[in-house]
Each structure stands twice: as structure tokens, then as C-alpha cells.
Amino acid sequence: MIPVAEFKQFTEQQPAFKVLKPWWDVLAEYLTVAMLMIGVFGCTLQVTQDKIICLPSHEPRENVSEAPCQQLLPRGVSEQMGGLREVHGLKNNLDLQQYSFINQLCYETALHWYAKYFPYLVIIHTLIFMVCTSFWFKFPGTSSKIEHFISILGKCFDSPWTTRALSEVSGENQKGPAAGRATATMAAAAGAGPGKAGEGEKEKVLAEPEKVVTEPPVVTLLDKKEGEQAKALFEKVKKFRVHVEEGDILYTMYIRQTVLKVCKFLAILVYNLVYVEKISFLVACRVETSEVTGYASFCCNHTKAHLFSKLAFCYISFVCVYGLTCLYTLYWLFHRPLKEYSFRSVREETGMGDIPDVKNDFAFMLHLIDQYDSLYSKRFAVFLSEVSESRLKQLNLNHEWTPEKLRQKLQRNARGRLELALCMLPGLPDTVFELSEVEALRLEGICDVTFPQGLSQLVQLQELSLLHSPARLPFSLQIFLRDRLKVIRVKCEELREVPLWVFGLRGLEELHLEGLFPPELTRAATLESLRELKQLKVLSLRSNAGKVPASVTDVAGHLQRLSLHNDGARLLALNSLKKLAALRELELVACGLERIPHAVFSLGALQELDLKDNHLRSIEEILSFQHCRKLVTLRLWHNQIAYVPEHVRKLRSLEQLYLSHNKLQTLPTQLGLCSSLRLLDVSHNGLHSLPPEVGLLQSLQHLVLSYNALEALPDELFFCRKLRTLLLGYNNLSQLSTHVGALKALIRLELKGNRLEALPEELGHCGGLKKAGLLVEDTLYEGLPAEVREKMEEE
């Protein structure tokens, strides 16, 4: 007997595939097993037992063709068909081999093909049904997607993060929004989610901030390994979703195999109903074997006809039930929109309002899973939510960035404040807010920062930098920071991305903004109102503005420093600068200026002016600076200035003049009349000589002449007895005057890159000059007398 296990390979699938089998596929599978058992049972009987038994007919030869087996029918049937006479106890004189020969011959020629091959047909049809049912699990184009989906689904279902996320939601539903620091972060993260649901969560944070304060998390943190596994699952789900939502091959394949099963069912049902009556107990057989056996007609008994007829009706019944399941499957396929799947109920139940709806094959597989157990799709949805992902990232961050590790990153910044700098993190660790000693917080490259209520623990925070780190701030924290924060820096792609709460920090003293105006707003250069910034003293704007933003005048009464860096974009309208009466420092860097703006001359309180990296060619307007009586620093470096006008002498209060990186060939003699000048930088020009009048600059302490073409220095230069820094590197000097010894205050002297053959020993008279402050080639230094070198090397 053939065991049913031999046919297992036709239906063998991975056990995990059962989640994609709805109840009708499971029922159909059991029906195919029953039909297969019918076929195997029939084949076994056919092989192991006699198929047919025949006896010769003793009717006259001329009547043989009429009804050779009529005499063996029951009496009633015989009478109805004409009432032939009965024959009893006739001897046939045939041996066993003749009977065997007749049996085989009549089986092949007289028995109807349906009765002969019925069990084989059952097996063939059943195998076709099995192939149709499981074909999409085997076809390369679909099996890979199914296996990948089942693998991800199982990991999502068993992931500890799934249980954690759903349990937290359950706790929130029971206790309200106050669920500890971790829940605070999650609620805030929900506010960052897309869509109306995300906005609703954000309003919830703004409305009830005081409820979420100091309670510990309800659920313990995941360990590092579980957190990394969950993080990897989020990435897999994202990539799989993009891949599967592109097409509908699974949906199409399932429809095709279902349609094929329906057609197969109809064909089997029709021909079985037609031919089932061909299975008869008595079979008349006429063969020309009279020369061999002495008989030409035989009456045969199909020994399994009765059993086969019962199996046939049983088989037809199973086929009918199978066909009904196929018809229901078609109804289900075409009655519902299976290429779209909505997580609406999951969103309502879990509170994760950003779970997206899916389509195509992704949606179809989720519909099938719901027929198995809707809990699978609910747990799977956790890994489709950006809110859930942000919660996981937050937990991993808290686990990785402990307070001890963060304290190791604390250091003093340029302003002397204790600063914590975090760069390129997936989020903001909650543990940051346990460092109450932090005075400055710098966040760079951290996406979608949402400050939790824990920020209120940073009672000493005065400085905040948000560099490509868009941040959301609940209203209660805006109140907390409004009077505490003194300095804020915001850098983003476009200035309209600057958070609005920044312009409401009324205690702010310094505001630094960096970003571009959109092309349509470049000329208007509209910036948010600064009226609330009552104490603002420093405003820095790096952008591509076409004019000075009008809102700058909102702080005209108290703004002391304004810096506009335009990255080469031309700044056209500057008239609003006239209103900045209290301005002390002005920087117009890379603003495409060709002239010194006339609006600058109206700034009576101006002390420092920086016009770096513009297109200045002429500075004839320098005469007008005599109206800026407090001007002490003038930076005109990195331009294209070819000469300095003579009326520079009018700038008697000027203390620092920067003219480096220009195209100067000479300096005016009247420069010596700038009696207050303490620093003069004319490096990186084309100067060939210095006017002797430079010796009149008795207040000069720092003179930078590097990278010019100087061949000699006037002796009058060494009358500047207060000179502390003299940089002469990379010129064409062939000798250094012995008068250099008169510079008793000199502490830094650069002579590298010249044509010097020796250094004067009078350098030893420069009491403040040490070896570290003398920048010269080693060979020249070694040429100094030993006592001079020893004196310079003394500490």
C-alpha cells in the first residue's frame, strides 16, 4: 500500500507560511488530503486485487451480441428486458491461464475508461489542486517576498520592543499622559510626527506640560543588544515596504491560481457527474478468441465497481465543497479593496497616529494575516511608526549616553561657559538634563529635537546652539527660557526654518542666525519681528539678503553689534542702518559692496567697522569717517583697494587699520598723522617701500608687513619705540638695520622668507625678544653671537 507521506512534497511548505493561509485555504488543504486518500485507497485496491472476473457466455452465436450478461441480472431486471431463459451449472472446460487471459483482455477492451482509471484521475486532479494552492509559495517572483515578509513579521512579533511599545501605550491610556521621563519624550516625539494626528499630540504636550515631570519609566530599558536588533528591524521594514509596495505580483498570482482552481473544479464536477454511471458491476465483453478458448462473448464482473461508485460520489462531494471555498475566495478577492490596508483601528488603539496606510502587495499580505490573527498586524504596525522609532532611538540614546559619559564631554567654550556639545546623534538623550551644571548646550546635526520638560532642570543654561538641529519647545519651556537664555545660535538651510519661539526670548542678548532666504524672498529679506527681544545687543545674520531686514530696526535702540555676512550676494539697500543709533560694531562681510555705504557715516556711536571680502576699489569716502568720532577700528581687508587717499590723516582717533589682502603699491605719507594708530596690517599687498613718515606713529604697537615686495625699511621706522610686534616675513629684504636694537618693547619679530645673509647682533638689545618670538631661518639664528643667543634663550 502506498503511504500518504509520499505525497507530502507536493504540499510541503515552511511552517511559518501558515500565517498567510486564511480559513478557506486551510479547509481546502484538508479537503485535498481527503481526496488524495480516496485516490490512494482506490489505486491500492486496483493494484493489489483482481480487477475483473469473466465467464464465457453459452448463448447461441447469433444471439450473443444482444445481451451476453442479461441472464445474470436480477429477476425483475431480466423480465423487464425480455425475459431470457436461465442457464445454471454449465461447465466451460477452460483452464486457469485461459481465464487470466480473458480477464486481462476484457479489462482492457470492454471496461469503460472512467471505471478503469477513476482512482488515478482522483490523484492527478488532487495533485493539481495542491499545486494551484501552493504555487505562489514556490514561484520565484513571489516566494522571495513572502519568505522575507514572514521572516520580518516573526521578528517584529517576538521583538521585546513591540511588547515595550504596546505596554507603554496601555499604561498611557490608563494613567493619562503623565508617565515619566521616557513617556514625556515619547509624547513630544509624537508631536513631531506627520499629519493631523501628530499636531494633536503636539497640542497635548503644550497643554499639559506640568503633568510630565519626574516619575520613573514604567517599563525597564531594553538592553543594548535588544535595542540594536529593534533598530535593525525598523530599517528592514522601511526597505521591505518600499520594495513590496511597488507592485502587486502577489495579489495577481493569488487571483490567477484561485481562478484556475475554480475552472478546474467546474471541469472535474461536470465530467464526473457524466461518467460516474459508467462504473457498473456487470460488463459484457465480446472478443474474437473462439480459436483459443472456444468462446467469443463473455460476461464479466468488475469486482470493485460497487466500492468505486461509492468513492466516486464521496469524491464528488468533496470537490463540491472545495469548489464552494474557491468561489468564496473569488468573492472575497473582488468584493473588498485588498490592495489598500488601513491601520485606522491600530492608530486609535495605540495612539501612534503616524502609522501609515499601505498598498499593493504589502496591503494584500496584511489582509491575509488578519484572517489568521489580527494581532500580527497590530504588532507589525509598531515598526511602521516613526513615533515608535523615535521612542526606540530615545531609549537607545539614554542607554548609550549615561550622565557620566556626558560629563566627560563638558568643557569651557570661548566665553568661559561650561559647554556640552553633541554632534550627529539620532536624537537628544534625556540624560542631558541631569547635568544641572551645564551653562551652554551645543547641538549639531541632530534632527527633530523636541525638548522635554527635563530641560527645566538646566537652571544655569544661558547659551544654546542649534546647528542644523530643528527644535520644538513646549510653551511651558518657552516661559522657562524666556528670561534665562542669553545667547542663541541657529543654523539651518533656510531662515524660515528658524523656530518661532526664538523670537520670543525677551532676555536674549545675542542672536546668531545662519541660513538662506528662499529665491522669492531674497530681495525682500523678510525676517520675523524682533520687538520682543528687549535686551538684544548682538545680532548676526549670515544669509543671501538683498537688503538689511526691516525688522532690525525693531532693536535699534539697544543693538550694539550687527554682523551681516552675505556669502557674496550683493547687499543693495542699507538705508535702514541709519536708524541704529546705538550701534558700536558693524560687520558687512561678503556683501558685494563696491563703495563704503554712506549710511555708515551716520552711525555716531560706531567704534568698529569691518568691510571684509567685498569689491572695494576706491575708499575716497574715508574722509566722511571723521563724523564717526568714536571709530577706533577699521577693517578694509580682502578687497581690491589700489591706494589709500591722503585724507586718511583725518582719522586721528583710529587705533586699528586693517588693509591686508588688497592691491596697494604704496602708502600715503599722511598716514603718519594718524597719531592714535596702534595696529597697522598691510600684509599681502604689493608694497615696495614704506614712507619715512611711518616713524611718526609713536603709538604703534603692531605692524604687519608680511607678503609684500619690500627691499628696505626706512630708519625712521625704528623710532616707533612702543612696537611690540613686527612681521616682515616673505619680502625682499637683504639686510636688517642695526637700529632694530632701539625697539626695547619688541617681543615678536618675523623675518622668514627674505634675502637676509645675517642678523644684526643689536637684536640682543631687544630685551623682550626671545627665541620663541623670533621667526627666522635656523641658519640665520645660528649666525648670531653666542651671548645674544644665550640671552634670547633665557626664560
Automatic annotation (TrEMBL):
SUPFAM superfamilies from the UniProt entry: L domain-like
Keywords: Cell membrane, Disulfide bond, Ion channel, Ion transport, Leucine-rich repeat, Membrane, Repeat, Transmembrane, Transmembrane helix, Transport
GO MF annotation terms: volume-sensitive anion channel activity
Organism: Prolemur simus (Greater bamboo lemur)
Residues of the signal peptide: none
Protein name: Leucine rich repeat containing 8 VRAC subunit E
Transport as UniProt keyword: yes
Entry annotated with the keyword Membrane: yes
Membrane topology qualifier: Multi-pass membrane protein
Catalyzed chemical reaction(s): iodide(out) = iodide(in); chloride(in) = chloride(out); taurine(out) = taurine(in)
Cited Pfam families: LRR_1, LRR_8, Pannexin_like
Coiled coil ranges: none
TM spans (from-to): 27-47, 117-137, 312-334
Lineage, top ranks: Eukaryota, Metazoa, Chordata, Craniata, Vertebrata
GO cellular component, one term: lysosomal membrane
GO biological process, one term: cellular response to osmotic stress
SMART domains given in the database record: LRR_BAC (SM00364), LRR_TYP (SM00369)
Stretches assigned to the LRRC8 pannexin-like TM region domain: 1-330
Subcellular location: Cell membrane
